[in-house]
């Protein structure tokens, strides 16, 4: 298996020391930095908006992987692109025009990601695959860090890997939620090649050891 990309989620970082936390993850070997945007409406929690993304942008050169858990999504896509997001993930749920959202992200010159919640079937992605660069499989219900990895999503990762490969294009499959040294190899064996990790990086003392541990987890 190829080594996965590791994207620490700043949701589990110390928000009062965000600049230092971003630099620490970068120096510890993070491939991407995952930024969870929550509005208290699409998910039962709130985090931050484009202002935080712009502030973080000044402290790292690695790709900013912005996960939008907001409703509506479209009116904010441009602001996140301008703030310095490299990848923008929109959820397939609750957005009747997700095709347009993906087109908008692409038109802004950013990588388009689609996130899919645990209860949502893979069919929902069937007719937008040509617009997708990254698929983010939620292995917890979105809203909070530190939840347990949902094993029920493993067949879904496998199915989406097949769908992605069938396009003949290089589509990344990321997993988001409950990733640790035990679940990382499970997700990777099913076809994931990008791992989001909040608690498993920012909840640890040694970020470099945590990132290396996920990348080289036994069985992977
Ligand atoms: C949950 C977020 C995740 C979260 C993962 O809504 O999308 O990115 O930070 O946290 P852990 O890795 O602790 O499950
Ligand atoms: Zn996320």
From TrEMBL:
It is an enzyme of class 5 (isomerase). The lineage of its organism: Bacteria, Pseudomonadati, Pseudomonadota, Alphaproteobacteria, Acetobacterales. HAMAP family: RPE. Its cofactor is Co(2+); a divalent metal cation; Fe(2+); Zn(2+). GO terms for biological process: pentose catabolic process; pentose-phosphate shunt. One of its GO terms (cellular component) is cytoplasm. A divalent metal cation binds at residues 34, 36, 67, 176. It catalyses: D-ribulose 5-phosphate = D-xylulose 5-phosphate. This is Ribulose-phosphate 3-epimerase. Pathway: Carbohydrate degradation. Keywords: Carbohydrate metabolism, Cobalt, Isomerase, Manganese, Metal-binding, Zinc. Belongs to the ribulose-phosphate 3-epimerase family. Substrate binds at residues 9, 67, 143-146, 176-178, 198-199. One of its GO terms (molecular function) is D-ribulose-phosphate 3-epimerase activity. The active site is at residues 36, 176. The keyword Zinc applies. The keyword Iron does not apply. Pfam families: Ribul_P_3_epim (PF00834). Catalyzes the reversible epimerization of D-ribulose 5-phosphate to D-xylulose 5-phosphate.
């Amino acid at each position: 298996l190829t080594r996965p990309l590791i994207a620490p989620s700043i949701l589990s970082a110390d928000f009062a020391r965000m600049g230092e936390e971003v630099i620490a993850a970068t120096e510890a070997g993070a491939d991407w930095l995952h930024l969870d945007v929550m509005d208290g409406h699409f998910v039962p929690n709130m985090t931050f908006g484009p202002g935080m993304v712009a502030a973080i942008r000044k402290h790292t050169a690695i790709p900013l992987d912005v996960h939008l858990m907001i409703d509506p999504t479209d009116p904010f896509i441009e602001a996140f692109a301008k703030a310095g997001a490299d990848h923008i993930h929109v959820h397939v749920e609750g957005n009747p025009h997700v095709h347009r959202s993906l087109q908008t992200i692409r038109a802004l010159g950013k990588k388009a990601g689609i996130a899919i919640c645990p209860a949502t079937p893979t069919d929902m992605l069937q007719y937008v695959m040509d617009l997708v660069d990254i698929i983010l499989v939620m292995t917890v219900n979105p809203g909070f860090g530190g939840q347990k990895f949902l094993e029920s999503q493993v067949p879904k990762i496998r199915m989406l890997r097949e769908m992605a490969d069938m396009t003949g294009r290089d589509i990344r499959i990321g997993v988001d939620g409950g990733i640790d040294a035990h679940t990382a190899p499970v997700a990777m064996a099913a076809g994931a090649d990008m791992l989001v990790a909040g608690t498993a990086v920012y909840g640890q003392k040694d970020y470099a050891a945590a990132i290396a541990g996920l990348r080289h987890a036994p069985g992977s």
